[in-house]
Write a structure and sequence with these properties.
Elements: E1 6-11, H1 22-40, H2 47-55, H3 59-68, E2 70-75, E3 81-89, E4 93-100, H4 109-123, E5 128-134, H5 137-145, E6 149-150, E7 160-166
Antiparallel strand pairs: 1-2, 2-3, 3-4, 5-7, 6-7
Helix pairs in contact: 1-3
């Protein structure tokens, strides 16, 4: 199944793209919202908190991040984005927005995107990578199973925890 998907990488770490495909970015924003809602079940975040978190990940924000960072995504045969994730360089290297359509979870798609991001980071000479992880149990378990450990955050975090992985 995983090999029958169309895999795409946008690597704009060293050169900002003038534009990215906004339709793809809209699909990413829609997938993120659907994934957050299906992962929450009203137990981790209140509905207003969840809607606030989703509102911070608009199509415009995703398009901006994709235009100056590394993005990996895959589409099904109909061209629908079913998974995506980013590698972002700010004050530290971070992985962001790993989202897999709930209908496609458990097939290794998230692990493959995570591996692509980590390989790209290693190629840039990165020795450690961070994630501000949401508190969904499945999300935390995924990061732990991929070698990320919780660390103290240098700044207050309200909806996430900070995790780190050594890449060497």
């Amino acid at each position: 199944m995983i090999d029958s998907l169309e895999w795409t990488e946008w690597n704009h770490l060293n050169d900002m793209a003038n534009n990215v495909d906004r339709e793809i970015c809209q699909q990413m924003a829609d997938l993120l919202a659907r994934n957050y809602r299906s992962s929450n079940d009203g137990e981790i975040y209140s509905n207003p908190e969840l809607e606030y978190l989703i509102s911070k990940k608009s199509t415009d924000k995703i398009a901006l991040l994709c235009s100056k960072n590394y993005t990996a995504f895959c589409q099904n045969k109909e061209g629908k984005v079913i998974a995506f994730g980013l590698l972002v360089q700010n004050e530290r290297w971070e992985i962001k927005y790993l989202n897999v359509d709930p209908d496609y979870k458990g097939q290794g798609i998230g692990r493959r995107i995570n591996s692509l991001r980590e390989e790209t980071a290693k190629a840039q000479g990165v020795k450690e990578i961070y994630v501000e992880s949401l508190l969904f149990p499945g999300t935390l378990a995924f990061h732990r199973s991929n070698g990320y450990l919780r660390i103290p955050s240098p700044k207050p975090l309200y909806y996430t925890i900070l995790m780190k992985k050594n890449l060497d």
